Amino acid sequence: MMEKRKKERKLTIWSNACSSGQEPYTIAMLLLDSFPELRNWNVTIHATDLSNQILTKARSGIYNQTEVNRGLPMQLLMKYFVRDGMQWKIKDDIRDMIQFSELNLIERFPRQFQGLDIVFLRNVLIYFCPETKTDILNRVDSSIASDGCLFLGGSESMMNICDRFDRELINKAVFYRPKSN
After folding, report:
1. Domains of the chain by range and CATH?
2. What is the pLDDT of residues 97-110, one digit of tens each?
3. For residues 55 and 94, what is the distance between their CA atoms, to the nearest angstrom?
4. How many secondary structure helices (H) and strands (E) does the chain include?
5. What is the C-alpha separation between 47 and 52, in angstroms, rounded?
6. Phi, psi at residue 140, to the nearest 5°?
7. Which helix (H) or strand (E) holds 48?
8. Is 123 left (phi over 0), alpha (psi -120 to 50) or beta?
9. Distance CA 107, CA 111 (A)
10. What is the pLDDT of residues 86-97, one digit of tens each?
11. I need a surface site. Which of 50, 104, 125, 177 has the fewest CB within 10 A?
């Protein structure tokens, strides 16, 4: 995917049900750590959640010690955060990659959610009935690039829900790509 996007130098990602922001911030950190050339690209991570209150915390990028100890490698903490008393604050270059907004998945997706390269819809579909899951996944299919990637939660599957995606497995990572038309 990176090779295909090299000419435009643009990458658009959506992290849904982002809660207090750990997922989109981690995505940004891992991208810059793995692909330093992305600092010169237009990388946008749309981070959405149903709760405006939790999005306020996400936008702040401030976490306590317990929160940063939950799965964040020490080298990423030291590289991308600044200690502020008893808290840790994400650096501005990471925070600037993220656009937080309120979104209810059962409603129409915003216009800027077209041609998405990567979609993270992890651990959220489990809260919907099968018909709503199908509707959401069909709309994701309409929003994702033809060579885009969709990541679901480890316990989630599209079996008997949506047939618009092919399941792929690379290095133990399961993801979905839109079926070729």
Report:
1. 9-103 (3.40.50.150), 109-181 (3.40.50.150)
2. 999 999 999 999 99
3. 16
4. 7, 10
5. 12
6. -65, -45
7. strand 42-49
8. left
9. 12
10. 999 999 999 999
11. 104
